[in-house]
């Protein structure tokens, strides 16, 4: 049916064959009644045919009230149990069959209030005196508490003498506790009272608020650092647990690790110093956990140290380090892992990490200088694969397995022209 | 019982009843000293482990196509039984008695079969060395890398791995016992640190020689040398360091330029 419209638009003559076809199909279509409950246009969206599997029962689509009910809306007075004065308010009410609804005002159930205890003067004298608080103050406090439903920030604002929120809370809760204890019939009913089970501690509250505000005021940078440190700590504790499980129980623990905790975040300067201290902590902790094993394979030890070095960097950087190692012709896992070889290998990895960081730094500062409209000194090596095409001549040992195709031995230039760049897995823009 | 306390026992021999208190006292007093002394000392035992497999050729049957031996030996073919008490090879469950315990050097298991599987090699050490065993894993290789080549009875398939056992905090008795033994690398002791003289070793005549220098399969052993790898690493490090220096120069150059741009408007 869309075809005829298209032809209309294009101004093409309609073929006599299609015309007769349309005439036939149209009466057929009109015999389909649109089903109730959906408008005609919506129905037409589905192609004018009922869906094969009705997703919603058609009768649910538009619920009309049953015809035997008579519904009207009336402006009626409302009675609320929440009000205790005589104020008479009115609102629209849905009346069915002339019977107005008899339920309470629907929002009355939200009218809750706190049960603030009241004390007599005697009780005050006996149980509730306090060196810091006078009776008048306590009375005022309690009155405010009742008025403002224990919203201590408001109460603190209204309190005539300036006291902190924690002090007010402390006084209120200790008075209530003392009262409860004094007036309780039996100790059992007290035991379940929430105030008895978890008493208010002013100092703890202060600490909690301070910690919260610290967390709230953290910059994103610090947040990331915290997450890093927490991940580190988790990894360290897991390693220590594993090592301790394997080792004897009375080996003294290494104190270096205990100092790295999230709360020391404020002490760490938010500069490049922090990442390096983190890695040093990694190494010392890895060494410590290795020591605790009492015996380990050197390849295992190297693995752990490599992991420690790469724990603070992303997967992409790790892959780049490995790629660089391959380019340099170094085995990713040394074939002859003696102590010297492993130490050298680790140092090499660290240096490669430094190199990659420097490259990133260089790119950033180059980018910013470009923005300033200057031409930076162009480097003469491709940035991402630093050792891509440099021939290295030492000992003559070359890795046998190579996935990349190497150019012929004649190539000695440092800068490969773009046309000859071999397919790289990662681009410079990936950084 | 830590290795430290065992060495103290030998040296001082305290009475039984007061042992715990004495031990704790001693640990408190000398722990820091001991720690300082033994902190950077480690004993390492270079090992080679792997397998050699011969194709049986005409005599090969479906279930016994290869004759192989899996072993652990000292990297320089010295006697590692000075450190290792026994080695347990865990073979595939289809073998008879798959748990083979070898208590004397040479630490190896010879078998015949057709399949390649992972073998768990557990090294158990003498009590004064370490209480905990150490596990290695080796995948038994029977068929050569080059799958298309013909199998030959003459040359076996040899797969060997080099690794070292590291003892990061060896006990005094261990140190004393193994000083000057060729099978391991003995650390340089801090000056003034004196080890007690080694205890009398067993009658040499009775003990079988534990080194593998004259092993029947010795001709197939690989010789591992760290020289090549060190050379590789040194060259690589040099290159990386050169690049780092260059980049650093370039970065400071750039930053200098940026500075001048920023302050360009100043008179």
Automatic annotation (TrEMBL), chain A:
Keyword Nucleus among record annotations: yes
> Tell me, what is an example of a GO biological process annotation in this record?
negative regulation of transcription by RNA polymerase II
> Which residues lie in Basic residues bias regions?
419-431
Top-rank taxon, per record: Eukaryota
- Locations of Basic and acidic residues compositional bias? 21-38, 363-373
Q: Where in the cell? A: Nucleus
Q: Which UniProt keywords apply?
A: Chromatin regulator, Nucleus, Transcription, Transcription regulation
Give the InterPro entries listed for this entry: DAMP1_SANT-like, Homeodomain-like_sf, SANT/Myb, Swc4/Dmap1
Any one Pfam family match given in the protein's UniProt record, by short name: SANT_DAMP1_like
A GO molecular function for this record?
A: transcription corepressor activity
Provide the residue span(s) of the region labelled Disordered: 1-38, 363-431
Boundaries of every Myb-like domain copy: 129-178
Asked whether the UniProt record includes Manganese among its keywords, one would answer no
One GO cellular component from the entry?
Swr1 complex
Name of the molecule in the record: SWR1-complex protein 4 isoform X2
From TrEMBL, chain B:
GO cellular component terms given for this protein: nucleus
Q: Which residues form a coiled coil?
A: 230-257
**Which region ranges are annotated with the description Disordered?**
1-34
Protein keywords:
Coiled coil, Nucleus, Transcription, Transcription regulation
* The UniProt record lists the keyword Protease: no
Q: Where is the YEATS domain?
A: 37-181
**Biological process according to GO:** regulation of DNA-templated transcription
Cite the InterPro entries for this sequence: YEAST_sf (IPR038704), YEATS (IPR005033), YEATS_dom (IPR055129)
Where in the cell?
A: Nucleus
Classification via PANTHER family: PROTEIN AF-9 HOMOLOG
What is this protein called in UniProt? Transcription initiation factor TFIID subunit 14b
Native source species: Raphanus sativus
């Amino acid at each position: 049916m869309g075809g005829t419209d298209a032809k209309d638009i294009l101004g093409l003559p309609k073929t006599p064959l299609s015309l007769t076809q349309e005439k036939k199909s149209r009466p057929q279509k009109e015999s389909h009644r649109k089903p109730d409950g959906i408008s005609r246009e919506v129905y037409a969206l589905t192609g004018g045919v009922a869906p094969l599997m009705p997703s919603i029962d058609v009768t649910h689509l538009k619920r009309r009230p049953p015809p035997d009910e008579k519904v009207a809306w009336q402006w009626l007075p409302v009675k609320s149990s929440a009000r205790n004065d005589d104020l008479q308010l009115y609102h629209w009410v849905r009346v069915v069959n002339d019977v107005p609804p008899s339920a309470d005002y629907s929002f009355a159930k939200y009218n809750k209030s706190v049960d603030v205890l009241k004390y007599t003067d005697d009780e005050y004298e006996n149980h509730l005196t306090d060196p810091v608080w006078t009776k008048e103050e306590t009375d005022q406090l309690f009155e405010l508490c009742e008025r403002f439903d224990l919203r201590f920030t408001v109460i603190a604002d209204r309190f005539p003498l300036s006291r902190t929120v924690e002090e007010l809370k402390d006084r209120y809760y200790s008075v209530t506790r003392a009262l409860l204890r004094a007036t309780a019939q039996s100790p059992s009913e007290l035991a379940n009272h929430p105030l008895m089970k978890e008493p208010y501690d002013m100092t703890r509250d202060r600490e909690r608020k301070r910690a919260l505000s610290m967390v709230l005021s953290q910059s994103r940078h610090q947040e990331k650092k915290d997450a890093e440190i927490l991940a580190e700590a988790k990894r360290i504790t897991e390693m220590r647990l594993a090592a301790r499980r394997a080792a004897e129980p009375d080996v003294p623990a290494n104190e270096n690790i205990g100092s790295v905790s999230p709360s020391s975040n404020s002490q760490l300067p938010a500069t490049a110093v922090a990442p390096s201290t983190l890695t040093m902590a990694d190494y010392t902790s890895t060494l410590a956990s290795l020591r605790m094993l009492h015996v380990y394979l050197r390849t295992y030890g190297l693995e752990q140290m490599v992991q420690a070095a790469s724990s603070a960097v992303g997967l992409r950087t790790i892959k780049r380090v490995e790629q660089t190692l391959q380019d340099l012709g170094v085995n990713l896992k040394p074939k002859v892992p003696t102590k010297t070889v492993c130490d050298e290998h680790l140092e090499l990895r660290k240096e490669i990490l430094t190199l990659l960081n420097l490259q990133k730094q260089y790119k950033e500062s180059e980018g910013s200088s470009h923005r300033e409209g200057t031409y930076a000194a162009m480097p003469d090596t491709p940035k991402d694969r630093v050792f891509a095409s440099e021939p290295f001549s030492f000992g003559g040992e070359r890795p046998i397995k190579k996935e990349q195709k190497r150019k012929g031995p004649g190539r000695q230039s440092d800068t490969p022209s773009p046309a000859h760049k071999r397919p790289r897995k990662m681009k410079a823009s990936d950084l | 019982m830590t290795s430290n306390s065992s060495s103290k026992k030998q040296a001082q021999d305290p009475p039984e009843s007061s042992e715990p208190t004495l031990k704790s006292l001693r640990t408190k007093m000398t722990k820091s000293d001991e720690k300082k002394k033994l902190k950077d000392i480690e004993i390492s035992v270079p090992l080679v482990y792997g397998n050699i497999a011969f194709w049986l050729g005409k005599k090969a049957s479906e279930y016994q196509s290869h004759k192989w031996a899996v072993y652990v030996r000292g990297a320089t073919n010295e006697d590692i039984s000075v450190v290792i008490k026994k080695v347990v090879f865990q073979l595939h469950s289809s073998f008879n008695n798959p748990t083979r315990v070898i208590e004397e050097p040479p630490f190896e298991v010879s078998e015949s079969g057709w399949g390649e599987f992972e073998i768990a090699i557990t090294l158990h050490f003498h009590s004064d060395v370490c209480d905990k065993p150490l596990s290695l894993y080796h995948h038994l290789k029977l068929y050569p890398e080059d799958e298309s080549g013909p199998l030959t009875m003459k040359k076996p398939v040899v797969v060997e791995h080099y690794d070292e056992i590291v003892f990061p905090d060896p006990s005094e008795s261990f140190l004393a016992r193994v000083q000057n033994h060729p099978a391991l690398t003995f650390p340089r002791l801090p000056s003034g640190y004196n080890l007690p003289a080694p205890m009398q070793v067993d009658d040499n005549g009775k003990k079988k020689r534990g080194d593998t220098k004259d092993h029947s399969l010795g001709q197939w052993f690989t010789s591992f040398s760290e020289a090549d790898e060190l050379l590789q690493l040194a060259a690589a490090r040099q290159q990386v360091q050169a690049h780092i220096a260059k980049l650093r120069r370039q970065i400071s150059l750039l930053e200098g330029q940026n500075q001048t741009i920023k302050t360009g408007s100043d008179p």
